[in-house]
Each structure stands twice: as C-alpha cells, then as structure tokens.
Design a protein that fits this description.
four-stranded mixed beta sheet; 379 residues; transferase; Glyco_trans_14; transmembrane helix; 9 strands; glycosyltransferase; alpha/beta; 2 domains; membrane
Length: 379
C-alpha cells in the first residue's frame, strides 16, 4: 500500500509539473518569433526606407498626395498638382517655415517665380497672362487666393486651372488681408523650387516679356518691398505707441501692398509671430495694416536686402483713397511705353527700368492690351 501511494504521488506530481513546462516552451517560442519579426522590420527600414514601414501623415498630403511612402528625393521635392489641403493656417505656416539646413541642393534645382494673385473673384486679365506665360513652363508657379465662395471656371488647358488655394474672406484695411498674403506665401513655399514670390491683383498686368522679368529678378541682389518713412498723418500718424519697445516710432514704415520677395524673406514673413501679434492688436482701421506690416517688419529685420521700392506701377496722382484705374481708351502703345521709359531706377547699383508690372486696369482694357502686347511688351 505504501508503494502504491508513492507511485500515485509521483504520477500526480508529474501531472502537476507538465503544464508548467509546456507553458515555458510556448513562451520561449513567442520570444524567438518576436526577435525574428524585429530583425526583419529593421532590415526593411534599412534597405527600403522609413516610408515603406509606416504611412505618411495625412495632414501633409500637400507635399505629395497619393504617395504611400517618401523613399526617394523626388517624392520630397516634386510639387503637388492639387493645391487643396485640409491644413489650418497654423499648420500651414509651420510647414512652410521648414527650410533646408544647407545652401546646396542634392538635385538640379531650377529656380521658379511664384505668381500670387490676391483677388475677390475672376481674373479678367487672364488671357494676357496666358500669353505672357506661354513657352516658359517649368519656370513659374501660380497661386490664387479668392473669396471662398468663388468657383473658378478655367479650362484644363489654362495655366490658372486648379490653382486656387484654400482661402478665407478678406476685407480692405483689415489684418485678414495680410493673412491672405501670408497664406499665399506659405502655399508657394511648399514648392521648394520657388525662389521669387510676387504679389499681384486681378487688375495687374505684366509690362515686359517673361524672359525679361525672370532675368531681372535672377540678377537682383534685393527684394522689392516699397518701404519708406512718412512723417505725415498717413504715415507716422498711424503709429500706435503701444507697439513700443519692439516697434518704435522711428521704426515705423509705410509702402505699397504689392511686393516681390526672395525665398529667404518669404520664410521670415510666414515664421513671424512677434510683429504679427502687435499689428493685429494695435493696427486697426484706419491704420491700414497692409501698408505697414511687411514694410516695417522687413525694414527692421533685413534692411540690407530691400530695394525699398515696388516693381508694380500704381498711379496715385489723381488723389483719393484708391489709385487711378485705366480703361479701354487709356491704352495705347505710347501709354504703355511711358510706364517704363519715363523713369529709371537702380538695380544692383546700375541704371535700369523701375517697373515689371502695373495696375489698376479695368476689364474693358483687355482687348487693347492684347493688341499692343507684342509690339510694346514683347510677348
């Protein structure tokens, strides 16, 4: 009986231990499989890139929509054909402020001009611009900021087709007008090939051929922001002393809204928070923030990079709150020649013409402009 008890006890002990040994075996197999999966994953990342192992964040699909991974340089530098995105202004400005750390690019970067149209709706001068751009594909980009309710009807063959960016309502003299300009700059900065950024309106026209405009900007060492010290009531008289000490009265500048800036200054504009907050808080109508914000900020931050003049001709000689508008019967060959022949300016210290563009032109002027464009403007 004692021997039987001992034998039974041994059986029960072995039955008790067997599940424990079996569990330990499964645990060891699980660890080995986990290590194998980790090794395979690391080799996949090493040889195929991070993008193969993880999806791209949808918030930044504007970089390259539809790309599963960013495993080669083309997927980073190729601009999107679709300008629509769901980023907020805060996300967009942050994304646009990211810049390469080195001055050299590991690819053949062809520098482009970003033409940024700030408009409420249609572009009546589009046929003239179409002729201006023809034959220069790959050297320019187009961006349109219109009222959100406006739906463009450009044909797929047009250079303006699907070039609207996500926009918001703008009001004359309000900070949201500068918001729109920063929004245009930020969207244009997402294309790493854009080097020069020109702000235009629906009433602007080119005065010279694309080749001449491109060469002028490529040679210049300066950005063209109209900025000057106006001691009168419409200059210093708009200054708010609450902006001090960051912005003092002696720093206050005024100028035309229509500018051309290099990529370096465009990045500074979209990154700015200090000056922006002061202008938003203290430059209320009748301060007209679009005449002072960029002009003051850039003259303080990068005065050596500014030509302190605009490349867009505007006629204020008739007086009033708005410049002269040119209609059908104003347009002659001599009229256009006078816009760029009667005045000379310095570019890199050398005499040159002052203006590449002009405004304001009424829709009725289009046909006459098309008639004289070849002989006078060169396109």
């Amino acid at each position: 009986m004692e021997d039987g008890k001992d034998f039974g006890t041994v059986i029960r002990i072995n039955q008790t231990r067997y599940p424990t040994v079996r569990s330990l075996q499964f645990f060891l197999i699980f660890i080995v499989l986990g290590l194998l999966v980790s090794i395979i994953s690391m080799n996949t990342i090493k040889y195929f890139g991070v993008g193969s192992a993880a999806p791209v964040a949808s918030s930044f699909n504007i970089v390259q929509p539809g790309v599963e991974g960013l495993s080669d340089i083309d997927s980073w530098i190729s601009p999107s054909s679709n300008l629509l995105h769901s980023m907020s202004d805060q996300e967009l400005l942050w994304r646009a402020s990211l810049v390469p750390q080195g001055k050299e690019y590991p690819f053949n970067r062809v520098r482009k001009i970003a033409f940024m149209f700030l408009t409420k709706g249609p572009l009546p001068m589009a046929p003239l611009w179409e002729r201006f751009f023809k034959g220069h594909e790959g050297l320019y980009s187009i961006y349109i900021h219109a009222n959100p309710s406006y739906i463009a009807d450009f044909l797929p063959s047009s250079v303006f087709y699907r070039r609207q960016i996500p926009s918001q309502v703008t009001e004359w003299g309000e900070m949201n007008l500068c918001d729109a300009e920063r929004r245009l700059l930020a969207n244009a900065l997402l294309d790493i090939s854009n080097e020069w950024f020109i702000l235009l309106s629906e009433a602007c026209v080119p005065l010279h051929s694309f080749t001449m405009v491109y060469d002028y900007l490529a040679r210049s060492r300066h950005s063209f922001v109209h900025s000057f010290d106006d001691p009168g009531p419409y200059g210093r008289g708009r200054y708010n002393k609450n902006m001090a000490p960051k912005i003092n009265l002696t720093n206050w500048r005024k100028g035309y809204q229509w500018f051309e800036v290099t990529r370096e200054l465009a990045v500074k504009i979209v990154k700015d928070k200090t000056y922006y907050s002061l202008f938003k808080k203290y430059c209320k109508p009748t301060c007209y923030v679009d005449e002072h914000y960029f002009q003051t900020m850039l003259s303080m931050e990068s005065p050596n990079l500014l030509a302190n003049r605009s490349l867009t001709f505007v006629d204020w000689s008739r007086g009033g709150a708005h410049p002269a508008t040119f209609g059908k019967y104003d347009i002659t060959e001599q009229f256009i020649k006078n816009l760029f022949e009667n005045k000379r300016c310095l570019n890199n210290g050398q005499p040159s013409f002052c203006f590449l563009f002009a405004r304001k032109f009424a829709p009725s002027a289009l046909d006459r402009l098309l008639d004289v464009a070849h002989n006078v403007m060169g396109f």
